[in-house]
Amino acid sequence: MTPAPSSTDSKGMTAAPAHTAPMLRRMRNYWIATAMLYLATMGLLAAQVGAGYTPRGPALLLSVVAACGTLAFYALIHFSARLKIAPDMLAALQSLFAIGCIIAGYAIAGPLRASLLSMLVVAIAFCTFAMHPRRALLLAGAALAGMAGIMWYLQAIDPQGHPPAVEAMSFGYLAAALLATTLLASEMTKLRRRMKVSKQELLAALDTIRTLATVDELTSLANRRHMNELLGAEERRSAPATSCVALLDLDLFKQVNDQYGHAVGDAVLRGFAGAAHGALREHDTLARWGGEEFLLLLPDATPQAARQVLERIVTRVHALQIDGMTPARRISFSAGLAERRDGEPFTDAISRADKALYRAKAAGRDRIEVA
Ligand SMILES: Nc1nc2c(ncn2[C@@H]2O[C@H](COP(=O)(O)OP(=O)(O)OP(=O)(O)O)[C@@H](O)[C@H]2O)c(=O)[nH]1
């Protein structure tokens, strides 16, 4: 039998799964396991025939039916997507076929028939893992009904060979084993589902943590921690290349807060981040370094190229219009730009950029100073 992988939503509902490549591979793997089980059973059946416990004709017929059915199911798995057979349905059909074979085996097994009951338990355990618990329960019911039918038939036509009391007690054992297997396996299924949901929740939490660890909440730019990681990675980069860093600081931002309120101040920070981000080259990174201060990393950039990027930012920031601020109030920033010297740690380059920024502020703001 081929377990049908299925997806479970947040409410625990099981959706019909699509025929994905890994799922087909899994179905084929289960098919191989099932085919080996059939092969082993046929070998045992042949041994029973050899020992004279089982009649040759019915045993041969059952073996042929089992082999043809197994091959037919391989083809059905292969073409299941094209034939639009849901994996769950395929698993149910395979289970029914296996149950049918086992019941027929029981009918012809003679004194060894009780051994076939254990195979039925295995088949039902497979079903419970493979499909929705309700469907597995139905199949277990069908298996029990089928066994009850064949046992009744056998004791009716051959009470000597199949004493009614023995058949009834065997049925009792079978019913108890199937019930226990179904309950245990459905508990396992519930456990697996819970683990799957927990795994999804953990992955979502990990995603949130990763975002919190790298992104500044207000501006959605890289945060200081992430920028430090990027600077470290850039320092470790083997290719000798010229990189630049720039510190950007909004001008007279305290006045914005005081005059328009903190919420407008926040909107200015977001507006600045969006405008600046749009002016960057593909591999540049702008991070919120602190309050209204930003650090720009420009890998593989000469000071001239870095300056061009900063000037693009200036143009965009000057054009910013923030809701709640008088249109005449222009947003501006000052910047200190420094080239990273060969092999120098970024902290040194940033420190020079900071001094250049200080000079830009001292010189009247709204300007770029190169270290
Ligand atoms: N709205 C808002 N304000 C912030 C945030 N972080 C820092 N600030 C404010 O930014 C202001 C920075 O003020 P200052 O350091 O005096 O600098 P400035 O007014 O920009 O003056 P210069 O840098 O000299 O041009 C302070 O009033 C901080 O409260 C924030 O997340 N949101």
Name a few traits of the molecule.
9% strand, diguanylate cyclase, two-stranded antiparallel ribbon, five-stranded mixed beta sheet, single chain, alpha+beta, Alpha-Beta Plaits, 371 residues, 11 helices, Nucleotide_cyclase, diguanylate cyclase activity, disordered N terminus, binds guanosine-5'-triphosphate
Tertiary shape: rod-shaped
Question: How many whole angstroms does the radius of gyration measure?
Answer: 37 Å
Strand-pairing-aware structural class: alpha+beta
In percent, how much strand structure appears in the residues?
A: 5-15%
Model regions low in confidence, pLDDT < 50 over at least 5 residues: 1-17
Kindly give the count of domains. 2
- Tell me which ligands are bound: guanosine-5'-triphosphate
Written as H for each helix and E for each strand, in order along the chain, the element string is EEHHHHHHHEHHEEHEHE
Side by side, the strands of the main sheet go 4-5-3-6-7
Largest sheet: 5 strands, mixed
Percentage of helical residues?
Answer: 55-70%
- Count, helices: 11
Q: How many E strands?
A: 7
Q: What is the mean pLDDT?
A: 90
Give the CA-CA distance, first to last residue.
73 Å
Q: How would you sum up this structure in a few lines?
A:
It comes from Massilia aurea. The protein is an alpha+beta fold.
Verbal overview:
This is diguanylate cyclase. The chain folds into two domains: 7-208, no CATH class; 224-370, 2-Layer Sandwich (Alpha-Beta Plaits), CATH 3.30.70.270. The protein has helices spanning 21-51, 56-79, 87-108, 113-130, 133-157, 164-214, 224-236, 253-260, 262-277, 303-318, 346-362; strands at 7-8, 14-15, 244-250, 285-290, 293-298, 333-339, 368-370. The chain has eleven helices and seven strands. By secondary structure, the chain is α+β, with helices and mostly antiparallel strands. The model is unreliable at 1-17 (pLDDT under 50). It is rod-shaped and about 115 Å long. α1 runs antiparallel to α2, α5 packs antiparallel against α6 (164-214) and α9 packs across α10 (303-318). It has a five-stranded mixed β-sheet with strand order 4-5-3-6-7, sandwiched between helices. Guanosine-5'-triphosphate (GTP) binds next to β3, α8 and α9.
